[in-house]
Design a protein that fits this description.
With about 300 residues, this protein is an alpha/beta fold. Helix content is about 55%, strand content about 10%. It folds into two domains: about 180 residues, Rossmann fold; about 120 residues, Orthogonal Bundle (N-(1-d-carboxylethyl)-l-norvaline Dehydrogenase, domain 2). It has an eight-stranded mixed β-sheet, with helices on both faces. The structure holds 1,4-dihydronicotinamide adenine dinucleotide and the ligand O=C(O)[C@@H](O)C(=O)[C@H](O)[C@@H](O)CO. The site of the ligand O=C(O)[C@@H](O)C(=O)[C@H](O)[C@@H](O)CO has 6 residues, from α8.
Length: about 300
Amino acid sequence: MSERKIAVVGGGSIGVAFALVFARAGHPVAVFEPESGRREAITAELTAKLQSLAEAGLLEGTGEAIAARVRLEADLPAAVAGAALVQECVPERLEIKQQLFAELGEATGPDTVLASSSSAIPASQTGEGLAAADRILVAHPGNPPFLLPVIELAPSPVTRPAVVAAAHRIYAGAGMSPVTVAREVEGFLFNRLQGAVLREAYALVRDGVATVEDIDTVMRDGLGRRWAFMGPFETADLNTRGGIASHAQKMGPAYERMGVERGQHDPWTPGLVTEVERQRRALLPLEQWEDRVAWRDRQLQRVAAALRPDDA
Ligand SMILES: NC(=O)C1=CN([C@@H]2O[C@H](COP(=O)(O)OP(=O)(O)OC[C@H]3O[C@@H](n4cnc5c(N)ncnc54)[C@H](O)[C@@H]3O)[C@@H](O)[C@H]2O)C=CC1
Ligand SMILES: O=C(O)[C@@H](O)C(=O)[C@H](O)[C@@H](O)CO
């Protein structure tokens, strides 16, 4: 549990979710939301989410005690005063974020981490020209962050490493799974991966290959089940005897042709496959492959049981 204050700026979908994440971890949370209708809805939304988590057995402590740590502040300076970290959760519009971060730079001390929830806008754009740019980074969650623990930390080239480390500690301490994006790109990791799937899904509908419903069924009843507990590399590694190098040999040419069809020629070159194989073998020696495949199937059984309809 941490007593360090967190400020959430923007009380919409993600702002309320982040307020829950940090309050659940014991932080006092200040929320600044300028729109009165939204502000009036925040407490009830927070309470409802906490109650649902408690009913699912996913809450340590009482919802009331957690909600009591969240306070709505009437103005921005009061909300961010003394905060260890500010989580920006305003609309995905560069001009709004740039204006806000200019205000945040003025209203906070040199040790306050300024984190943007942005889905795709790099910190180098959000903090462009600001003295506080060296303490701005993107900390992008999946929605909702109180149930999807991954958070991708995307610093700009001028973000101080100590700021990234401080952010990592705070998010990890709040039960999240921080990953650090090594080089600044639009959309970071989560939305680049999600975008690759969505681009193909839209193209398949455009070309009359499948319906929206059938494509979602392939994801829900297929890929999504495996991806609920494995990433794409571990999935491929366990799909093929011999591991991911064997998978690349068997499937690489077909995936390359599919990419060319979409105007994207990114072949899995021998050097790239060697590097991916090196990283995978460091995580799972081939002699453990059979055991890991058995683990995979046990996990899929758990997922199947969890998703079984209540009236089954
Ligand atoms: N909704 C989602 O699935 C996810 C959203 N994000 C990102 O999080 C950010 C917020 O997204 P949402 O919560 O969905 O948006 P939202 O529209 O639900 O909430 C934004 C809130 O910010 C308030 N706001 C507007 N200008 C403000 C200002 N200057 N200062 C303080 N508050 C202000 C609005 O009144 C509104 O309540 C966006 O950058 C979005 O891309 C990131 C991950 C997932
Ligand atoms: O999909 C998510 O949860 C996030 O990666 C997002 O950024 C949002 O979906 C975003 O694309 C829509 O606000």
